[in-house]
Backbone:
């Protein structure tokens, strides 16, 4: 699991002035799942308010790495940024600062990844929205939409939690599906 200083800002219901935090983000291998402050975030669809959504609430968030020059909040935004006490030193070192700038408040965040929550909600969502039979169909018979759904399914898997032998199968299947999609797009450019 990749760990890095992460900026998280709530976008749902706000105009660049939502609550914001800086803390230790833990990303899965694909970067599509983020564990932060006891919550689970999934990479969101293009064109949404944020780039991730809270798996439990569905709220949209803007999530990114911390910028060395500051300016993590949108230039038109405002409001205090809460920073986890566990990362204050690393943040100051990254920015080359001696103390926190005005507008930051030190808080304590939950730094344990909520994997159980992730598995519970992903399984629930998969049952509601994903047609499991797609996994067993011949790829050539899938429509482009079904192919995209199947790719999303494999990209959303938390591979470290899958047994090593099965993990290789998932990775191989995803690679093959991505090649089929690229081949289709090359034949029929939009």
Residues:
């Amino acid at each position: 699991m990749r760990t890095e200083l992460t900026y998280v800002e709530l976008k749902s219901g706000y105009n660049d002035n939502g609550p914001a935090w800086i803390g230790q983000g833990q990303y899965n291998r694909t970067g599509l799942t983020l564990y932060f402050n006891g919550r689970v975030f999934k990479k969101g669809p293009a064109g949404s308010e944020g780039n991730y959504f809270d798996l439990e609430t569905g709220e949209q968030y803007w999530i990114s790495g911390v910028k060395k020059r500051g300016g993590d909040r949108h230039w038109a935004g405002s409001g205090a940024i809460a920073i986890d006490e566990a990362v204050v030193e690393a943040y100051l070192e990254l920015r080359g600062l001696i103390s926190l700038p005005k507008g930051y408040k030190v808080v304590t965040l939950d730094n344990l990844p909520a994997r159980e929550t992730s598995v519970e909600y992903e399984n629930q969502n998969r049952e509601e929205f994903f047609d499991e039979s797609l996994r067993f169909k011949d790829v050539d018979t899938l429509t482009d939409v079904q192919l995209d759904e199947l790719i999303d399914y494999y990209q959303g898997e938390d591979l470290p939690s899958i047994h090593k032998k099965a993990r290789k199968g998932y990775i191989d299947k995803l690679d093959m599906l991505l090649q089929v999609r690229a081949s289709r797009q090359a034949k029929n450019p939009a």
Notes: The radius of gyration is 19 Å. Helices lie at 88-95, 115-129, 144-155, 164-187. Residues 2-107 form one domain. The mean pLDDT is 83.
